[in-house]
Amino acid sequence: MARLFIKLVGLILLFLGLYFFGQNIIFVSGYYSFFYRSLPATGSVLAIMAGIFALIFFPRETGNFGWILLGIGIVLVFLSGGVILKPTSLWSFCVAFTTLAVGYKLLNQGRINF
Fold first, then answer.
1. Bridge partners of 27?
2. How far is CA 85 from the centre of its chain?
């Protein structure tokens, strides 16, 4: 029972860290007058969807191909200008990174070594 509680706390801390990091990231979409200007945005959505689909439904058959598609999709998101990173303070970055790291450590190992 205690092990399940530790994993639950780790999962909550992991999501809390992602929430803190997500506060400073804005995803935008825009209207493009010409079709070729929206290609990086369209390609990023298709690559991310294909990568997630490959990793969830065919993890053994695709190998690293799903991770490669996710990486290409993330690069295309930044190339399309669809991501705005707001400035953040050092304090909020430390809190977000600490909660993310502690949550991951609790979820995987069930303990924190100081």
1. 83
2. 14
Which residue's entry shows tokens 């990023």? 44
Alpha-carbon gap, residue 11 to 14, rounded angstroms: 5
**Sign of CA pseudo-dihedral 72, 76, 51, 36:** negative
Separation of alpha carbons 25 and 85, rounded Å: 5
Q: What is the residue type of 39?
A: L
The tens digit of pLDDT for each residue in 24-83 reads 777 676 655 555 555 666 778 788 888 888 887 887 888 788 889 889 988 887 777 766
Strand positions, DSSP E, 1-114: 25-27, 83-85
Residue 4's CB is within 10 A of a number of other CB atoms, namely 9
Whole-Å CA distances, 25 to 13, 20, 45: 19, 10, 17
- 3-class secondary-structure state, position 111: coil
- Structure-block tokens of residue 93: 């970055």
